[in-house]
Amino acid sequence: MLSEYLEACGLERDAIIKPPIGRSFTLQRFLGVIEDRGTGQNIIDKIEEHGLKEDKKAVELYIAGVATRLMIEKAM
C-alpha cells in the first residue's frame, strides 16, 4: 500500500534516498523495513497531514527523515 502511494507521489522503487546522516539507500529497501514494522499507514497519514503529496522532493525529504530516525533508534 505504501509503495503504491509513494509511486503516486512520483517516487520510483529504485529511487535513491539520501538522509542527512548515514548511507544512501533505495526506496525499495526502506519499504522492506517499513513493511516489517507495519507503520506504512502512519507515513501516508503524515504526508497527507502536511500536504506533501504534490511535492516529490518534500516526500523524499520526509522519507529520509523517517529513515534517519529509524537508524538512530536502532543504534540506541
- Structural class based on helices, strands and sheet pairing: mainly alpha
Which stretches are low in confidence, meaning pLDDT under 50 for 5 or more residues running?
A: none
> How many angstroms separate the termini?
29 Å
Return Rg in Å.
11 Å
In a few lines, what is going on in this structure?
By secondary structure, the chain is mainly alpha-helical. It is 63% helix and 5% strand. Strands 1-2 form a two-stranded antiparallel sheet.
Describe the structure.
It is a single chain. The protein is mainly alpha-helical and 76 residues long. It contains 4 helices and 2 strands. It has helices spanning 2-8, 27-37, 40-49, 56-75; strands at 16-17, 25-26. It has a two-stranded antiparallel sheet with strand order 1-2. A hairpin with a 7-residue loop joins strand 1 (16-17) and strand 2. The chain is globular and about 35 Å long.
Task: Describe the SSE topology.
Blueprint: H1 2-8, E1 16-17, E2 25-26, H2 27-37, H3 40-49, H4 56-75
Antiparallel strand pairs: 1-2
Annotation keywords:
two-stranded antiparallel ribbon; 76 residues
